Amino acid sequence: MKALRYAVAVVASLAFGNAWAFHDGGVAYCDGCHSMHNSSGNKFMSGGRNTGLTGWNALGAASTTQFQGNKFLLQGSDDSSTCLNCHAAADKAPSGYHVMTFPAPAAGTAPVERTPGGDFAWLTVSTTATASYGAPISNKGERHGHNVVAQDYGLVADSTLLTAPGGQYDATKLSCASCHDPHSRARVVDANGTIAYPSLPNGSTPGSNVLPIGSSGSYGATASGSEAVGVYRLLGGANYSQMSYTNPLPFNANPPIAVAPSTYNRSESVTETRVAYGQGMSEWCSNCHRSIHNDNTNTSNTALIHPAGNGAKLTATANDLAGNANGTTIAAIYNAYVASGNLTNTQASSYTSLVPYEEGTNVIATLAGHAVNDGSQKSGPQTGSENVMCLSCHRAHASGWSSMTRWNNQAEFITIGGAYPGTDATGEGTYGQYNLGYTTVQVTAALYDRPATNFAYAQRSLCNKCHAKD
Fold first, then answer.
1. pLDDT (tens digit, 9 = 90+) per residue, 126-152?
2. Which pLDDT score is estimated for 338?
3. What does the alpha-carbon distance between residue 448 and residue 354 come to, in Å, rounded to a whole number?
4. Residues 6+ apart with CB under 8 A from 423
5. From CA 435, how far away is CA 424, in angstroms rounded?
6. How crowded is residue 124: how many other Cβ atoms within 10 Å of its Cβ?
7. Cα-flanking dihedrals φ and ψ of residue 414, to 5°?
8. Exposed site from 39, 140, 326, 434, fewest CB < 10 Å?
9. What is the mean pLDDT of residues 72-100?
């Protein structure tokens, strides 16, 4: 099995760089995740990735007994552990499809992976600090992201948010399969992002016939006359509910249309990784967070909900600037904003992956032309179709900051005196209200290795990329 997986990965790497092709846009080969009899070769079936110590795993726990397997015949103790058997690694640098640094980073050091969704290892990083005015600062790891339960990797349920904010999803059941459908039957069947499903038979009524999934749809491939492509990141489709948990609110929105560059897990110290988001991300997030995400632009500012969705266009005029003669729009502010106090940029070079947006199109070729990691696509909003979305502010998996935001929203400053704060910084950068107990290495990593000089000498929140209040 290992040889087969390696061969598949090598072929995929030739075509898509680091976008390895185990899933190929749909359900993978069954033995990659399941063990039918656990197992004639006495293969480890739970307890984390084997570190080479006979009979023991990376957490120091014994494997399961031969022929005594896990629920659903999984190769991990639970859904997420099975996923992390491939998607977690002890990398020294960002690598391929890995979404968790494991084992967890040592105190004062940072998780390694730099995927657009973030590194789940941030969930294990908790720090404390003391503010300059004497108040204690608590920076809990569980506040850094979606607390997927992965027993074999030390990830546990959120102890504070017992259900999904704005929804009913049980936090103790949250797993990778809560969002990603490992048996995905959803597929994109044309160049305009149309999603279809084969329907199952119902009694004497036969099911339907749709194009088979031939490859991933996450990197700009389009359907042909004989093959469809998978949906973005195998996200669960309309009516999805995972087998191991009956969701009280089955999904009601299809996956978004988006395109990622083939190499996406990388430092952004020099150039940014641009995922071209098309449409539907906030609507998809609302599958679990229905009360706090909707398609209304909320121009009256009365609903206590930040606009997010296909209708939350960046061409809207900023409420507080509506009386200005030039009718400044959010898009115009985004394009002009460089850093705190600096509004001299142009549309041609304004994009930042710290504040991405949706382009308002499902045309895959258009999105594929913008999904790069080499800095060749820096343009900001220009068509009037762009909109704010949940991922404009949050990462999908986890980040170094509370509520998995893309930057620190708990302090006035991102940089102080032209440098990042940290417990090992100098001057005001040592204040706990700015560094949250992180070292400068951790702060830098949480911002994907950008030099502090990319920001202002005293940089405030990146909410200002759209609002320019600084």
1. 999 999 999 999 999 999 999 999 999
2. 98
3. 9
4. 108, 129, 430, 435, 437, 438, 439
5. 10
6. 22
7. -90, -40
8. 326
9. 93
Q: Are strands 195-196 and 187-188 parallel, antiparallel or unpaired?
A: antiparallel
Is the bond preceding 103 in cis, omega lying within 30 degrees of 0? yes
| Type and span of the H or E element at 188 | strand 187-188
Q: What's the rounded Cα separation, in Å, for the pair 429 and 411? A: 12
C-alpha to C-alpha distances, 355 to 244, 394, 403, nearest whole angstrom: 35, 9, 15
Give the separation between CA 3 and CA 197, rounded to whole angstroms.
32
Residue 69 has pLDDT above 80, yes or no: no
User: Cβ distance 211 to 223 under 8 Å?
Assistant: yes
One-character DSSP codes across 123-162: GG--EEEE-TTS-EEEE-GGGGB----BGGGTB---SS--
Q: How far apart are CA 272 and CA 378, in angstroms?
A: 9
DSSP string, 88-100: EE--SS--TT--E
Q: Render 380-414 in DSSP notation, one character per residue.
A: ---SS--B--GGGTB-SSB-SSGGGBSS--SSSBS
Task: Say if CB 453 and CB 440 are below 8 A apart.
Answer: no
Of 39 and 354, the structure prediction assigns the larger pLDDT to 354
Which helix (H) or strand (E) segment is 278 a member of? strand 276-279
Sign of the Cα pseudo-torsion (180, 401, 19, 366, in order): positive
User: Which structure tokens are listed for 169?
Assistant: 């999803």
Query: With contact defined as beta carbons under 8 Å apart, do 350 and 336 qualify?
Result: yes
List, in order, residues 6 or more apart from 319 with CB less than 8 Å away: 299, 301
Mention every residue, 6+ apart, whose C-beta is less than 8 A from residue 317. Answer: 327, 328, 329, 330
- How far apart are alpha carbons 43 and 38 in whole angstroms? 7
- Contact criterion met (CB below 8 Å) for 88 and 163: no
- Cβ-count burial 317-345 (b if 16+ within 10 Å, e if not): bbeebeeeeeebbbbbbbbbbbbbeeeeb
User: How many other C-beta atoms lie within 10 A of the C-beta of residue 157?
Assistant: 15
pTM of the model: 0.90
CA distance linking residue 350 with residue 431, whole number of Å: 31
How buried is residue 177: exposed, middle or buried, by Cβ count under 10 Å (0-12/13-18/19+)?
A: buried
Are the C-beta atoms of 269 and 450 separated by less than 8 Å? yes
Question: Token pair 């941030």 is at which residue?
Answer: 122
> Residue 214: phi, psi to the nearest 5?
-105, -25
Containing H/E element for 277?
Answer: strand 276-279
